[in-house]
Amino acid sequence: MVPRLELEDLTCVFDDVAVVDGVSLGIHPGQVTCLLGPSGCGKSTTLRMAAGVERTQAGSVRIDGRVVADATTHLPPEARGIGMMFQDFALFPHLTAAENVGFGLGRKDAGRTARVQDLLERVGLAEMADKYPHQLSGGEQQRVALARALAPRPSVMLMDEPFSGLDNRLRDEIRDQTLEILKEEGAAVLLVTHEPDEAMRMADQIALMRKGRIVQVGAPYNIYNAPVDAEAAGFFSDINLLHGVVQDFSTDTPFGQFFCPNMRDEADVEIIIRPQHLKLDFDRQGTGPLPTASDGVAARGQVARARFMGHESLVELMMDHDGSILKATVPGVFLPKTGTPLWLSLRRDRCFVFPCKRQSRVTSPWLNSPAA
Ligand SMILES: Nc1ncnc2c1ncn2[C@@H]1O[C@H](COP(=O)(O)OP(=O)(O)OP(=O)(O)O)[C@@H](O)[C@H]1O
């Protein structure tokens, strides 16, 4: 099946810098794709090229197989059959909620009133139809903006940080409502965000972007559980990072041996693990837990700090073997005193081993860097 929205090799150069560099992506009807990445990586510029607000310098944008932009073609945004929603909502202040929603529908459109009414009901604002934007809360304005963007039944929805103006309390609820309506409408959705949680919550597919390029595309589960590199892993959560050196396709660590297939001898490697995949155990007069196949060998440290985070506790251990700090999270309340000896093991199926990309070679092979 041809994707409804196809970006192929999109490139945008500003002042000799490629801020978007060969981006390709396909989005099917009813699918939400989140373009996720740090500030300045080129997400909005990509979206703006898809919308037609920014000219496409190289590559192409196709909607339902039709070229709407390439080096020689440029359909304006209103001729592309897209809905757009940006972070400032940009409602017309002199129009009521109902008039805002109906704005993109022709005055002679027979179904106009019914469509406006239906959308206002679905976003839970039927009672607010005659209110002006300044009489609505931030969350209500966001919902009017959503209804307005969806009113002409766009085949593609382009959304740039559409929830960033909302306070935290409202945001989750509105995200869920928005997702439900987007799914009902069946548009292909490209949503820009710099928040991993938002992408995990909303996306069928996440496209992770860095320095103008897409570095990984996949379902949230796959991106989280099989990151392409340490930076991708660190984008979604705090991580622990151990360094190792390859010898005979493996590296030895105080937590046991890790395989390093296809890596040459003497190569530096990084072993990444998220804090929730470390296991803590009591000291038992210095003996610690026995090694197991799934958790490898345990290593000892002393509690440097323990904090209660709400639904879990974060324990930082200073490791006996090199003085580095490793972080482990434990469900519920676990607040051992500073200096308490504890043993730490790593869930080996949750460790990622990557060639080290960093330029500076570390002095201690087991040094744990601050989380990315
Ligand atoms: N019109 C422009 N002229 C020159 N540089 C620009 C222009 N628009 C964007 N840039 C630069 O391109 C880079 C990418 O910007 P873009 O807005 O696409 O990033 P982003 O990933 O959406 O960031 P954010 O999450 O902060 O919005 C930035 O370094 C930005 O300064």
From TrEMBL:
Domain ABC transporter intervals: 5-236
Cellular component terms (Gene Ontology): ATP-binding cassette (ABC) transporter complex
Entry superkingdom: Bacteria
Molecular function GO terms recorded: ABC-type ferric iron transporter activity; ATP binding; ATP hydrolysis activity
Gene Ontology terms: biological process: quaternary ammonium group transport
Gene3D superfamilies named in the record: P-loop containing nucleotide triphosphate hydrolases
Keywords on record: ATP-binding, Cell inner membrane, Cell membrane, Ion transport, Iron, Iron transport, Membrane, Nucleotide-binding, Translocase, Transport
UniProt-recorded name of the protein: ATP-binding cassette domain-containing protein
